[in-house]
Design a protein that fits this description.
eight-stranded mixed sheet, disordered N terminus, homodimer
Chain lengths: 275, 275
Protein backbone atom coordinates (compact mmCIF):
# COMPACT_ATOMS: atom_id res chain seq x y z
CA UNK A 1 0.00 0.00 0.00
CA UNK A 2 3.04 2.28 -0.14
CA UNK A 3 2.90 5.19 -2.50
CA UNK A 4 5.58 4.78 -5.10
CA UNK A 5 7.04 7.55 -7.22
CA UNK A 6 6.71 5.89 -10.59
CA UNK A 7 6.26 8.00 -13.67
CA UNK A 8 2.61 8.71 -14.34
CA UNK A 9 1.50 6.52 -17.25
CA UNK A 10 -0.45 7.65 -20.27
CA UNK A 11 -3.88 6.09 -20.24
CA UNK A 12 -6.45 5.08 -22.82
CA UNK A 13 -9.96 4.32 -21.61
CA UNK A 14 -12.11 1.88 -23.58
CA UNK A 15 -15.76 2.59 -22.83
CA UNK A 16 -17.68 5.78 -22.06
CA UNK A 17 -20.39 4.24 -19.87
CA UNK A 18 -20.88 4.92 -16.15
CA UNK A 19 -17.53 3.52 -15.01
CA UNK A 20 -15.49 4.86 -17.93
CA UNK A 21 -17.07 8.27 -17.53
CA UNK A 22 -16.35 8.68 -13.82
CA UNK A 23 -12.91 7.11 -14.05
CA UNK A 24 -11.79 9.34 -16.92
CA UNK A 25 -12.96 12.42 -15.04
CA UNK A 26 -11.27 11.33 -11.81
CA UNK A 27 -7.91 10.72 -13.53
CA UNK A 28 -8.18 14.00 -15.40
CA UNK A 29 -8.88 15.86 -12.14
CA UNK A 30 -5.76 14.28 -10.65
CA UNK A 31 -3.72 15.59 -13.55
CA UNK A 32 -3.20 12.17 -15.10
CA UNK A 33 -3.33 12.49 -18.88
CA UNK A 34 -5.98 10.52 -20.74
CA UNK A 35 -4.88 10.04 -24.33
CA UNK A 36 -7.95 8.50 -25.93
CA UNK A 37 -11.51 7.57 -25.10
CA UNK A 38 -13.11 4.76 -27.09
CA UNK A 39 -16.84 4.20 -27.39
CA UNK A 40 -18.86 2.32 -30.02
CA UNK A 41 -20.84 5.49 -30.45
CA UNK A 42 -18.67 8.30 -31.78
CA UNK A 43 -20.84 10.93 -30.10
CA UNK A 44 -20.33 9.38 -26.65
CA UNK A 45 -16.61 9.00 -27.20
CA UNK A 46 -16.21 12.61 -28.27
CA UNK A 47 -18.43 13.96 -25.50
CA UNK A 48 -16.37 12.34 -22.74
CA UNK A 49 -13.08 12.99 -24.54
CA UNK A 50 -13.88 16.68 -24.61
CA UNK A 51 -14.39 16.69 -20.83
CA UNK A 52 -10.95 15.21 -20.19
CA UNK A 53 -9.00 16.77 -23.07
CA UNK A 54 -8.55 13.45 -24.88
CA UNK A 55 -9.32 12.21 -28.36
CA UNK A 56 -12.54 10.34 -28.92
CA UNK A 57 -12.57 7.31 -31.24
CA UNK A 58 -15.22 4.76 -32.17
CA UNK A 59 -13.01 2.21 -33.91
CA UNK A 60 -10.72 0.01 -31.83
CA UNK A 61 -8.21 0.03 -34.69
CA UNK A 62 -7.75 3.76 -34.11
CA UNK A 63 -6.44 3.18 -30.60
CA UNK A 64 -2.82 4.31 -30.41
CA UNK A 65 -0.44 1.44 -29.88
CA UNK A 66 2.09 2.90 -27.48
CA UNK A 67 0.17 3.72 -24.29
CA UNK A 68 1.30 2.50 -20.87
CA UNK A 69 -2.13 1.52 -19.63
CA UNK A 70 -5.39 0.52 -21.30
CA UNK A 71 -8.47 0.43 -19.08
CA UNK A 72 -11.32 -1.63 -20.49
CA UNK A 73 -14.51 -0.29 -18.91
CA UNK A 74 -17.17 -1.92 -21.06
CA UNK A 75 -20.04 -4.31 -20.25
CA UNK A 76 -18.84 -7.71 -19.06
CA UNK A 77 -19.87 -9.53 -22.21
CA UNK A 78 -18.03 -7.02 -24.41
CA UNK A 79 -14.69 -7.40 -22.59
CA UNK A 80 -13.55 -10.47 -24.54
CA UNK A 81 -14.36 -9.25 -28.06
CA UNK A 82 -12.81 -5.86 -27.27
CA UNK A 83 -9.68 -7.60 -25.97
CA UNK A 84 -9.38 -9.72 -29.10
CA UNK A 85 -9.42 -6.70 -31.41
CA UNK A 86 -7.15 -4.67 -29.16
CA UNK A 87 -4.54 -7.42 -28.91
CA UNK A 88 -3.98 -7.13 -32.66
CA UNK A 89 -3.14 -3.43 -32.42
CA UNK A 90 -1.34 -2.51 -29.23
CA UNK A 91 2.23 -3.19 -28.11
CA UNK A 92 3.07 -6.43 -26.35
CA UNK A 93 4.39 -4.83 -23.16
CA UNK A 94 1.33 -2.59 -22.56
CA UNK A 95 -0.66 -3.19 -19.39
CA UNK A 96 -4.34 -3.93 -20.03
CA UNK A 97 -6.87 -4.03 -17.21
CA UNK A 98 -10.63 -4.30 -16.94
CA UNK A 99 -12.89 -2.73 -14.32
CA UNK A 100 -15.35 -5.57 -13.81
CA UNK A 101 -16.27 -7.17 -10.52
CA UNK A 102 -17.65 -10.31 -12.08
CA UNK A 103 -15.11 -11.12 -14.83
CA UNK A 104 -11.98 -13.12 -14.02
CA UNK A 105 -8.67 -11.61 -15.10
CA UNK A 106 -7.96 -14.83 -17.00
CA UNK A 107 -10.19 -13.42 -19.73
CA UNK A 108 -7.45 -10.88 -20.48
CA UNK A 109 -4.57 -13.29 -19.88
CA UNK A 110 -5.41 -15.12 -23.10
CA UNK A 111 -4.68 -11.98 -25.09
CA UNK A 112 -2.12 -9.93 -23.15
CA UNK A 113 1.11 -10.73 -21.35
CA UNK A 114 0.54 -7.84 -18.93
CA UNK A 115 -3.00 -7.92 -17.64
CA UNK A 116 -4.84 -6.94 -14.49
CA UNK A 117 -7.97 -5.60 -12.85
CA UNK A 118 -8.87 -2.14 -11.60
CA UNK A 119 -12.28 -2.61 -9.96
CA UNK A 120 -14.01 0.19 -8.07
CA UNK A 121 -16.50 -1.25 -5.58
CA UNK A 122 -19.25 1.24 -6.21
CA UNK A 123 -22.39 1.61 -8.26
CA UNK A 124 -22.09 4.53 -10.66
CA UNK A 125 -24.71 6.71 -12.30
CA UNK A 126 -23.51 9.14 -14.92
CA UNK A 127 -25.27 12.20 -13.52
CA UNK A 128 -24.28 11.62 -9.87
CA UNK A 129 -20.91 13.02 -8.79
CA UNK A 130 -18.61 10.46 -7.15
CA UNK A 131 -16.32 10.83 -4.16
CA UNK A 132 -13.43 8.59 -5.24
CA UNK A 133 -11.52 9.00 -1.95
CA UNK A 134 -14.06 6.74 -0.20
CA UNK A 135 -14.50 4.12 -2.94
CA UNK A 136 -12.61 0.87 -2.28
CA UNK A 137 -10.43 0.16 -5.32
CA UNK A 138 -9.66 -3.51 -5.84
CA UNK A 139 -6.54 -4.11 -7.92
CA UNK A 140 -4.99 -7.27 -9.29
CA UNK A 141 -2.13 -8.11 -11.67
CA UNK A 142 0.11 -11.08 -12.32
CA UNK A 143 3.42 -9.20 -12.29
CA UNK A 144 4.72 -7.23 -9.35
CA UNK A 145 5.70 -4.28 -11.51
CA UNK A 146 2.20 -4.07 -13.00
CA UNK A 147 0.62 -4.34 -9.58
CA UNK A 148 2.76 -1.55 -8.25
CA UNK A 149 1.83 0.62 -11.25
CA UNK A 150 -1.89 0.02 -10.55
CA UNK A 151 -1.38 0.56 -6.84
CA UNK A 152 0.22 3.93 -7.50
CA UNK A 153 -2.61 5.02 -9.77
CA UNK A 154 -5.32 3.69 -7.43
CA UNK A 155 -3.89 5.57 -4.47
CA UNK A 156 -4.12 8.80 -6.41
CA UNK A 157 -7.87 8.27 -6.51
CA UNK A 158 -8.85 6.40 -3.35
CA UNK A 159 -7.68 6.08 0.23
CA UNK A 160 -8.77 2.43 0.29
CA UNK A 161 -6.79 0.33 -2.18
CA UNK A 162 -7.05 -3.44 -1.83
CA UNK A 163 -5.20 -6.26 -3.53
CA UNK A 164 -7.95 -8.73 -4.31
CA UNK A 165 -7.53 -11.88 -6.38
CA UNK A 166 -10.08 -13.21 -8.90
CA UNK A 167 -11.78 -15.49 -6.41
CA UNK A 168 -12.12 -12.79 -3.78
CA UNK A 169 -13.33 -10.25 -6.31
CA UNK A 170 -16.10 -12.55 -7.57
CA UNK A 171 -17.15 -13.08 -3.96
CA UNK A 172 -17.09 -9.33 -3.32
CA UNK A 173 -19.23 -8.73 -6.38
CA UNK A 174 -21.84 -11.22 -5.17
CA UNK A 175 -21.92 -9.56 -1.75
CA UNK A 176 -22.27 -6.16 -3.43
CA UNK A 177 -25.37 -7.37 -5.28
CA UNK A 178 -27.01 -8.22 -1.96
CA UNK A 179 -26.14 -4.99 -0.13
CA UNK A 180 -26.69 -2.67 -3.08
CA UNK A 181 -29.11 -4.05 -5.72
CA UNK A 182 -31.26 -6.16 -3.40
CA UNK A 183 -31.34 -3.51 -0.69
CA UNK A 184 -32.38 -0.95 -3.28
CA UNK A 185 -35.18 -3.30 -4.33
CA UNK A 186 -36.32 -3.46 -0.68
CA UNK A 187 -36.49 0.35 -0.77
CA UNK A 188 -38.49 0.18 -3.99
CA UNK A 189 -40.97 -2.22 -2.40
CA UNK A 190 -41.21 0.07 0.64
CA UNK A 191 -41.96 2.95 -1.71
CA UNK A 192 -44.66 0.99 -3.57
CA UNK A 193 -46.28 -0.11 -0.30
CA UNK A 194 -46.46 3.49 0.98
CA UNK A 195 -47.69 4.95 -2.31
CA UNK A 196 -50.66 2.58 -2.20
CA UNK A 197 -51.90 4.43 0.91
CA UNK A 198 -50.79 7.94 -0.08
CA UNK A 199 -47.87 7.98 2.33
CA UNK A 200 -44.65 9.72 1.23
CA UNK A 201 -41.49 7.58 0.93
CA UNK A 202 -39.61 10.30 2.85
CA UNK A 203 -41.08 8.97 6.12
CA UNK A 204 -38.87 5.89 5.76
CA UNK A 205 -35.57 7.72 5.23
CA UNK A 206 -34.62 8.12 8.93
CA UNK A 207 -35.22 4.40 9.49
CA UNK A 208 -33.20 3.52 6.40
CA UNK A 209 -30.29 5.67 7.54
CA UNK A 210 -30.49 4.30 11.07
CA UNK A 211 -30.16 0.73 9.78
CA UNK A 212 -26.70 1.71 8.54
CA UNK A 213 -25.81 3.95 11.46
CA UNK A 214 -26.22 0.99 13.79
CA UNK A 215 -23.59 -0.91 11.79
CA UNK A 216 -21.32 2.13 11.70
CA UNK A 217 -21.58 2.29 15.50
CA UNK A 218 -20.27 -1.28 15.86
CA UNK A 219 -16.51 -1.44 16.53
CA UNK A 220 -14.18 -1.73 13.53
CA UNK A 221 -13.40 -5.37 12.81
CA UNK A 222 -16.42 -6.54 14.83
CA UNK A 223 -19.20 -5.38 12.55
CA UNK A 224 -22.01 -7.93 12.47
CA UNK A 225 -25.44 -6.98 11.10
CA UNK A 226 -27.03 -10.18 12.44
CA UNK A 227 -26.62 -8.84 15.99
CA UNK A 228 -28.72 -5.81 15.04
CA UNK A 229 -31.73 -7.62 13.61
CA UNK A 230 -35.15 -6.56 14.92
CA UNK A 231 -38.75 -7.02 13.73
CA UNK A 232 -41.43 -9.69 13.58
CA UNK A 233 -39.27 -12.35 11.89
CA UNK A 234 -36.57 -12.52 14.55
CA UNK A 235 -39.16 -12.12 17.33
CA UNK A 236 -41.09 -15.00 15.74
CA UNK A 237 -44.17 -12.80 16.00
CA UNK A 238 -46.41 -14.98 13.83
CA UNK A 239 -49.50 -12.76 14.26
CA UNK A 240 -47.73 -9.79 12.69
CA UNK A 241 -46.14 -11.96 10.01
CA UNK A 242 -49.58 -13.34 9.04
CA UNK A 243 -51.05 -9.84 9.04
CA UNK A 244 -48.25 -8.71 6.69
CA UNK A 245 -48.71 -11.70 4.40
CA UNK A 246 -52.46 -11.03 4.17
CA UNK A 247 -51.76 -7.41 3.35
CA UNK A 248 -49.31 -8.44 0.60
CA UNK A 249 -51.77 -11.02 -0.71
CA UNK A 250 -54.38 -8.34 -1.18
CA UNK A 251 -52.21 -5.58 -2.59
CA UNK A 252 -48.85 -6.97 -3.72
CA UNK A 253 -49.02 -10.75 -4.22
CA UNK A 254 -45.75 -10.52 -6.18
CA UNK A 255 -43.84 -9.70 -2.96
CA UNK A 256 -45.32 -12.49 -0.84
CA UNK A 257 -42.73 -15.12 -1.71
CA UNK A 258 -39.90 -12.68 -1.01
CA UNK A 259 -41.36 -11.79 2.38
CA UNK A 260 -41.55 -15.47 3.31
CA UNK A 261 -38.05 -16.22 2.05
CA UNK A 262 -36.61 -13.27 4.02
CA UNK A 263 -38.50 -14.24 7.16
CA UNK A 264 -37.30 -17.85 6.88
CA UNK A 265 -33.73 -16.66 6.35
CA UNK A 266 -33.76 -14.32 9.35
CA UNK A 267 -35.25 -17.03 11.54
CA UNK A 268 -32.75 -19.73 10.57
CA UNK A 269 -29.91 -17.26 11.05
CA UNK A 270 -31.17 -16.62 14.56
CA UNK A 271 -31.38 -20.28 15.46
CA UNK A 272 -27.83 -20.68 14.16
CA UNK A 273 -26.62 -17.83 16.38
CA UNK A 274 -28.32 -19.41 19.35
CA UNK A 275 -26.62 -22.77 18.92
CA UNK B 1 -49.11 20.29 13.38
CA UNK B 2 -49.32 23.54 15.38
CA UNK B 3 -47.65 23.58 18.74
CA UNK B 4 -50.31 24.08 21.38
CA UNK B 5 -49.70 25.38 24.90
CA UNK B 6 -51.60 22.71 26.79
CA UNK B 7 -50.53 21.77 30.31
CA UNK B 8 -47.88 19.05 30.26
CA UNK B 9 -49.52 15.79 31.29
CA UNK B 10 -48.24 13.35 33.87
CA UNK B 11 -47.23 10.14 32.19
CA UNK B 12 -47.00 6.49 33.17
CA UNK B 13 -45.07 4.15 30.90
CA UNK B 14 -46.03 0.49 30.76
CA UNK B 15 -43.02 -1.51 29.57
CA UNK B 16 -39.28 -1.06 30.02
CA UNK B 17 -38.18 -2.67 26.74
CA UNK B 18 -36.45 -0.87 23.89
CA UNK B 19 -39.29 1.52 23.10
CA UNK B 20 -40.31 2.19 26.71
CA UNK B 21 -36.68 2.78 27.66
CA UNK B 22 -35.93 5.34 24.96
CA UNK B 23 -39.31 7.05 25.24
CA UNK B 24 -39.06 7.47 29.01
CA UNK B 25 -35.59 8.95 28.69
CA UNK B 26 -36.66 11.29 25.89
CA UNK B 27 -39.64 12.64 27.87
CA UNK B 28 -37.50 13.02 30.98
CA UNK B 29 -34.89 14.98 29.03
CA UNK B 30 -37.64 17.29 27.80
CA UNK B 31 -38.67 17.96 31.38
CA UNK B 32 -41.89 16.00 31.11
CA UNK B 33 -42.51 14.16 34.37
CA UNK B 34 -42.76 10.37 34.26
CA UNK B 35 -44.70 9.16 37.29
CA UNK B 36 -44.31 5.41 37.09
CA UNK B 37 -42.57 2.76 35.00
CA UNK B 38 -44.12 -0.69 34.86
CA UNK B 39 -42.26 -3.85 33.88
CA UNK B 40 -43.05 -7.50 34.62
CA UNK B 41 -39.55 -7.72 36.05
CA UNK B 42 -39.18 -5.50 39.11
CA UNK B 43 -35.46 -5.04 38.45
CA UNK B 44 -36.06 -3.66 34.94
CA UNK B 45 -38.84 -1.38 36.15
CA UNK B 46 -36.68 0.05 38.92
CA UNK B 47 -33.60 0.42 36.74
CA UNK B 48 -35.40 2.55 34.15
CA UNK B 49 -37.45 4.38 36.82
CA UNK B 50 -34.22 5.45 38.51
CA UNK B 51 -32.95 6.96 35.23
CA UNK B 52 -36.05 9.13 34.85
CA UNK B 53 -36.83 9.84 38.52
CA UNK B 54 -40.00 7.75 38.49
CA UNK B 55 -41.29 4.88 40.60
CA UNK B 56 -40.80 1.35 39.27
CA UNK B 57 -43.60 -1.18 39.71
CA UNK B 58 -44.06 -4.78 38.55
CA UNK B 59 -47.75 -5.18 39.30
CA UNK B 60 -50.29 -3.46 37.07
CA UNK B 61 -52.57 -3.03 40.12
CA UNK B 62 -49.97 -0.71 41.61
CA UNK B 63 -50.34 1.74 38.73
CA UNK B 64 -51.71 5.01 40.04
CA UNK B 65 -55.22 5.72 38.78
CA UNK B 66 -55.12 9.45 38.14
CA UNK B 67 -52.52 9.99 35.43
CA UNK B 68 -53.28 11.98 32.28
CA UNK B 69 -51.57 9.63 29.87
CA UNK B 70 -50.66 5.95 29.93
CA UNK B 71 -48.26 4.75 27.25
CA UNK B 72 -48.35 1.00 26.67
CA UNK B 73 -44.96 0.06 25.21
CA UNK B 74 -45.03 -3.71 25.52
CA UNK B 75 -44.80 -6.52 22.94
CA UNK B 76 -47.77 -6.61 20.59
CA UNK B 77 -49.24 -9.77 22.05
CA UNK B 78 -49.09 -8.33 25.58
CA UNK B 79 -51.02 -5.16 24.73
CA UNK B 80 -54.49 -6.70 25.11
CA UNK B 81 -53.93 -8.50 28.46
CA UNK B 82 -52.20 -5.40 29.85
CA UNK B 83 -55.13 -3.24 28.70
CA UNK B 84 -57.66 -5.57 30.34
CA UNK B 85 -55.97 -5.36 33.73
CA UNK B 86 -55.32 -1.63 33.45
CA UNK B 87 -58.93 -0.85 32.55
CA UNK B 88 -60.01 -2.18 35.95
CA UNK B 89 -57.76 0.25 37.80
CA UNK B 90 -57.40 3.59 36.07
CA UNK B 91 -59.85 6.45 35.72
CA UNK B 92 -62.31 6.46 32.87
CA UNK B 93 -61.18 9.75 31.36
CA UNK B 94 -57.47 8.83 31.16
CA UNK B 95 -55.89 8.69 27.71
CA UNK B 96 -54.30 5.31 26.95
CA UNK B 97 -52.08 4.81 23.89
CA UNK B 98 -49.87 2.04 22.58
CA UNK B 99 -46.63 2.41 20.61
CA UNK B 100 -47.07 -0.44 18.15
CA UNK B 101 -46.86 -0.22 14.39
CA UNK B 102 -48.72 -3.45 13.79
CA UNK B 103 -51.60 -3.32 16.32
CA UNK B 104 -54.81 -1.51 15.45
CA UNK B 105 -56.05 1.07 17.95
CA UNK B 106 -59.33 -0.83 18.12
CA UNK B 107 -57.58 -3.17 20.53
CA UNK B 108 -57.58 -0.37 23.09
CA UNK B 109 -61.03 0.94 22.13
CA UNK B 110 -62.63 -2.13 23.70
CA UNK B 111 -61.28 -1.12 27.08
CA UNK B 112 -60.87 2.66 27.14
CA UNK B 113 -63.03 5.56 26.08
CA UNK B 114 -59.95 7.68 25.34
CA UNK B 115 -57.50 5.66 23.33
CA UNK B 116 -54.84 6.32 20.72
CA UNK B 117 -51.48 5.45 19.22
CA UNK B 118 -48.06 7.01 19.67
CA UNK B 119 -45.88 5.09 17.20
CA UNK B 120 -42.24 6.06 16.57
CA UNK B 121 -41.13 4.79 13.16
CA UNK B 122 -37.72 3.60 14.21
CA UNK B 123 -36.01 0.41 15.32
CA UNK B 124 -34.63 0.80 18.83
CA UNK B 125 -31.77 -0.93 20.61
CA UNK B 126 -31.36 -0.25 24.31
CA UNK B 127 -27.65 0.54 24.20
CA UNK B 128 -27.81 2.83 21.14
CA UNK B 129 -28.63 6.50 21.76
CA UNK B 130 -31.54 7.84 19.73
CA UNK B 131 -31.99 11.18 18.00
CA UNK B 132 -35.71 11.74 18.54
CA UNK B 133 -35.76 14.95 16.48
CA UNK B 134 -35.41 12.92 13.28
CA UNK B 135 -37.76 10.04 14.14
CA UNK B 136 -41.19 10.27 12.47
CA UNK B 137 -43.82 10.05 15.21
CA UNK B 138 -47.16 8.68 14.01
CA UNK B 139 -50.06 9.65 16.23
CA UNK B 140 -53.71 8.67 16.21
CA UNK B 141 -56.70 9.22 18.50
CA UNK B 142 -60.47 9.18 18.16
CA UNK B 143 -61.14 12.49 19.88
CA UNK B 144 -59.77 15.82 18.75
CA UNK B 145 -58.74 16.79 22.28
CA UNK B 146 -56.75 13.57 22.70
CA UNK B 147 -55.13 14.00 19.32
CA UNK B 148 -54.08 17.52 20.14
CA UNK B 149 -52.61 16.31 23.47
CA UNK B 150 -50.58 13.66 21.62
CA UNK B 151 -49.58 16.14 18.97
CA UNK B 152 -48.23 18.53 21.60
CA UNK B 153 -46.22 15.78 23.28
CA UNK B 154 -44.93 14.36 19.99
CA UNK B 155 -43.71 17.76 18.83
CA UNK B 156 -41.65 18.10 21.99
CA UNK B 157 -39.73 15.03 20.83
CA UNK B 158 -39.72 15.04 17.04
CA UNK B 159 -39.78 17.53 14.22
CA UNK B 160 -41.79 15.09 12.08
CA UNK B 161 -45.20 14.36 13.59
CA UNK B 162 -47.75 12.63 11.38
CA UNK B 163 -51.40 11.86 11.85
CA UNK B 164 -51.69 8.31 10.59
CA UNK B 165 -54.79 6.14 10.87
CA UNK B 166 -54.79 2.41 11.65
CA UNK B 167 -54.81 1.35 8.03
CA UNK B 168 -51.93 3.65 7.08
CA UNK B 169 -49.93 2.66 10.14
CA UNK B 170 -50.21 -1.04 9.35
CA UNK B 171 -49.05 -0.28 5.82
CA UNK B 172 -46.17 1.80 7.15
CA UNK B 173 -45.14 -1.01 9.44
CA UNK B 174 -45.05 -3.48 6.56
CA UNK B 175 -42.90 -1.09 4.51
CA UNK B 176 -40.60 -0.63 7.51
CA UNK B 177 -40.02 -4.38 7.67
CA UNK B 178 -38.78 -4.32 4.07
CA UNK B 179 -36.49 -1.30 4.37
CA UNK B 180 -35.17 -2.11 7.84
CA UNK B 181 -35.34 -5.82 8.74
CA UNK B 182 -34.96 -7.22 5.23
CA UNK B 183 -32.28 -4.73 4.27
CA UNK B 184 -30.38 -5.60 7.43
CA UNK B 185 -30.63 -9.26 6.43
CA UNK B 186 -29.11 -8.37 3.04
CA UNK B 187 -26.23 -6.79 4.96
CA UNK B 188 -25.92 -9.93 7.07
CA UNK B 189 -25.71 -12.08 3.93
CA UNK B 190 -23.10 -9.71 2.48
CA UNK B 191 -21.10 -10.09 5.66
CA UNK B 192 -21.32 -13.91 5.56
CA UNK B 193 -20.30 -13.99 1.90
CA UNK B 194 -17.22 -11.84 2.57
CA UNK B 195 -16.19 -13.71 5.72
CA UNK B 196 -16.03 -16.93 3.72
CA UNK B 197 -13.12 -15.45 1.75
CA UNK B 198 -11.47 -13.52 4.59
CA UNK B 199 -12.67 -10.15 3.34
CA UNK B 200 -13.69 -7.51 5.90
CA UNK B 201 -17.31 -6.32 5.89
CA UNK B 202 -16.01 -2.73 6.12
CA UNK B 203 -15.25 -2.81 2.37
CA UNK B 204 -18.99 -2.75 1.69
CA UNK B 205 -19.85 0.25 3.86
CA UNK B 206 -19.22 2.97 1.23
CA UNK B 207 -21.45 1.10 -1.25
CA UNK B 208 -24.15 0.65 1.41
CA UNK B 209 -24.09 4.34 2.25
CA UNK B 210 -24.09 5.31 -1.41
CA UNK B 211 -27.25 3.29 -2.03
CA UNK B 212 -29.02 5.67 0.36
CA UNK B 213 -27.19 8.81 -0.73
CA UNK B 214 -28.54 8.29 -4.24
CA UNK B 215 -32.10 8.38 -2.87
CA UNK B 216 -31.29 11.39 -0.71
CA UNK B 217 -30.07 13.15 -3.87
CA UNK B 218 -33.42 12.66 -5.60
CA UNK B 219 -35.72 15.70 -5.28
CA UNK B 220 -38.15 15.79 -2.34
CA UNK B 221 -41.51 14.35 -3.37
CA UNK B 222 -39.97 12.59 -6.38
CA UNK B 223 -37.93 9.93 -4.63
CA UNK B 224 -38.08 6.65 -6.52
CA UNK B 225 -35.57 3.88 -5.77
CA UNK B 226 -36.58 1.90 -8.88
CA UNK B 227 -34.98 4.58 -11.07
CA UNK B 228 -31.66 3.96 -9.28
CA UNK B 229 -31.47 0.19 -9.75
CA UNK B 230 -28.22 -1.20 -11.16
CA UNK B 231 -26.59 -4.64 -11.30
CA UNK B 232 -26.91 -7.92 -13.18
CA UNK B 233 -30.66 -8.38 -12.57
CA UNK B 234 -31.81 -5.15 -14.18
CA UNK B 235 -29.17 -5.49 -16.93
CA UNK B 236 -30.50 -9.03 -17.53
CA UNK B 237 -26.86 -10.16 -17.45
CA UNK B 238 -27.61 -13.88 -17.27
CA UNK B 239 -23.93 -14.93 -17.29
CA UNK B 240 -23.25 -13.05 -14.08
CA UNK B 241 -26.52 -14.21 -12.54
CA UNK B 242 -25.62 -17.85 -13.26
CA UNK B 243 -22.13 -17.33 -11.89
CA UNK B 244 -23.63 -15.91 -8.67
CA UNK B 245 -26.13 -18.77 -8.39
CA UNK B 246 -23.34 -21.33 -8.79
CA UNK B 247 -21.31 -19.57 -6.14
CA UNK B 248 -24.29 -19.59 -3.76
CA UNK B 249 -24.99 -23.25 -4.56
CA UNK B 250 -21.48 -24.16 -3.50
CA UNK B 251 -21.18 -21.99 -0.42
CA UNK B 252 -24.59 -20.71 0.69
CA UNK B 253 -27.40 -22.82 -0.82
CA UNK B 254 -29.78 -21.29 1.74
CA UNK B 255 -29.56 -17.89 -0.04
CA UNK B 256 -30.16 -19.22 -3.55
CA UNK B 257 -33.94 -18.94 -3.49
CA UNK B 258 -33.73 -15.39 -2.14
CA UNK B 259 -31.30 -14.39 -4.90
CA UNK B 260 -33.67 -15.76 -7.55
CA UNK B 261 -36.75 -14.15 -6.00
CA UNK B 262 -34.98 -10.76 -5.81
CA UNK B 263 -33.72 -11.03 -9.38
CA UNK B 264 -37.19 -11.95 -10.64
CA UNK B 265 -38.70 -9.03 -8.71
CA UNK B 266 -36.20 -6.50 -10.05
CA UNK B 267 -36.73 -7.75 -13.58
CA UNK B 268 -40.52 -7.62 -13.49
CA UNK B 269 -40.35 -4.16 -11.97
CA UNK B 270 -38.21 -3.05 -14.89
CA UNK B 271 -40.55 -4.42 -17.51
CA UNK B 272 -43.40 -2.62 -15.73
CA UNK B 273 -41.49 0.67 -15.85
CA UNK B 274 -40.85 0.16 -19.54
CA UNK B 275 -44.48 -0.33 -20.42
Amino acid sequence: MMRSNKKIPSITIIGAGNVGHHMAIAFHQQGIPITQIYSRKKRNAQKLAKLVQAIGVNDLKEISAGQDLYIIAVNDDAIEPVAVTMSQHIQKDALVVHTSGACPSILLKKHFRHFGVFYPLQSFSKDKPVNWRTIPLCIHAKYKRDLSKLDHLAQLLSKQVLRVDDEQRAQLHLAAVFVNNFTNFCYEIGNNILQAKDLPFEILLPLIQQTIDKINAQPEGQKNPSLLQTGPAIRRDQDTINQHLNRLNQQFPQYRELYMEMTKGIQSSKSKNKK
